[in-house]
Design goal:
The chain is α+β, with helices and mostly antiparallel strands and about 350 residues long. It has a domain at about 1-45 and about 50-255: 4-Layer Sandwich (Deoxyribonuclease I, Chain A). It contains seven helices and 14 strands. A six-stranded mixed β-sheet has the order 4-5-6-7-12-8. The chain has a three-stranded antiparallel β-sheet with strand order 1-3-2. Strands 9-13-14 form a three-stranded mixed β-sheet. The longest helix has about 60 residues, at about 290-350. It holds the Pfam family SH3BP5. One of its GO terms (biological process) is intracellular signal transduction. One of its GO terms (molecular function) is catalytic activity.
Length: about 350
């Protein structure tokens, strides 16, 4: 199987798949991995095969270290997986795989509702937990800004596709609303087109990550299918005309900054503070008359003054950081209010 050869060759820990074309309750069985899928429920009666669908393959070694559960699968084309470390419940990673049907497809959806549903879920990810969203977004966003210029100081994004479609602008607005950015073209080994076929070249597949966690995602790489075929020696092994995908493989590495605490560890011992007493009965009356003693006291006073200044500066920075976080949270709440308002207007319009 072409997919199995790819996973083995590239030694992937987690693989997100868009357009799985699996029907009913069928799954992908792959030795050494566990499958988590969301198949398209409603297939046309005349359809000869399945369509749409998303899923994630996770290596057994990862599943041995993490409790892996489906966090959300309520929206067709959006699957969220939660990985919670078995030894420390505070260490959590969320993974989302997305498939947004093309704008002119017979299975096209309301793009605003699609991104609104995705935004709602992003806001439920606990503060500080790492997450990423990947898949086929069918959004060509050219060199549109994926952050608020002047506020979010992000590295420039290397762009290879300067074309756009109607989804592109909505996609970038969604990114600024949820404080996320495109990984493609950042922290990159090789950036390239993600869709390559006889019909043309484009970038419609992306990995999306939080601004504040961009530094933990590295070595982003796009590998065209033609190169995959060469690297896994697929010619002669498979009927490539039937199974060859027209989307590239996107890979990257994640450095998770997890805490080392263990929920099974013994509670810390009750360490009492030891009081230190000094015997000053035998101090000479002229102990302050020596120049060295005065210098030592001056040095201690200066160190205390410097320490106070540094503490004041740290407190100021903490206050500024708190203010920045509160400003960001207020922005998120405003976005949620706008989301609710748009949903309310659509509901009223549909009722009419």
């Amino acid at each position: 199987m072409f997919l199995i050869s790819c996973v083995k060759h590239y030694n992937l820990d987690i693989l997100g798949l868009a357009e799985t074309h699996i029907t009913g309750d069928k799954v992908i069985n792959f030795e050494g991995y566990q499958w988590f899928g969301l198949n398209r429920k409603h297939i046309h009666v005349r359809a000869k095969s399945g369509s749409g669908g998303v899923g994630i393959l996770i290596r057994n070694g990862i599943c041995n270290e993490f409790d892996v559960t489906i966090a959300d699968n309520d929206t067709e084309g959006i699957l969220w997986i939660k990985l919670e470390n078995k030894t420390c419940a505070n260490n959590v990673l969320y993974v989302c795989v997305v498939y947004l049907p093309p704008e002119n497809s017979t299975r096209a959806v309301n793009v605003h509702e699609f991104f609104d549903n995705l935004m709602t879920k992003v806001y439920t990810v606990p503060q500080g937990n790492a997450f990423y969203m990947c898949g086929d977004w069918n959004s060509r966003c050219s060199d549109f800004a994926d952050s608020i210029t002047g506020i979010n100081n992000l590295p420039d994004r290397h762009v290879v596709d300067f074309q756009c479609n109607s989804y592109g602008k909505v996609f970038c607005e969604f990114l600024t609303d949820v404080s996320c950015c495109i990984l493609n073209g950042r922290n990159t080994i090789l950036n390239d087109y993600t869709y390559v076929s006889t019909r043309g070249l484009s970038v419609v597949d992306y990995c999306v990550v939080p601004y504040e966690m961009l530094d933990i995602f590295n070595k982003f790489k796009v590998t065209r299918t033609s190169l995959i075929i060469e690297q896994i020696c697929a010619n002669g092994k498979f009927d490539l005309q039937k199974i060859i995908p027209d989307h590239s493989l996107l890979t990257w590495e994640i450095t998770l900054k997890f805490s080392q605490s263990n929920k099974n560890a013994a509670p810390p011992k009750n360490n009492r503070k030891t009081k230190i007493k000094y015997d000053i009965k035998n101090l000479p009356e002229d102990w302050l008359s020596s120049e060295s003693a005065v210098d030592d006291i001056d040095s201690i006073i200066q160190n205390l003054e410097v320490s106070n200044v540094m503490e004041a500066e740290l407190e100021k920075r903490r206050s500024e950081d708190h203010h920045l976080k509160m400003t960001k949270r207020c922005g998120q709440l405003e976005n949620q209010l706008r989301l609710l308002e748009r949903s309310k207007k659509r509901s009223i319009a549909n009722a009419r």
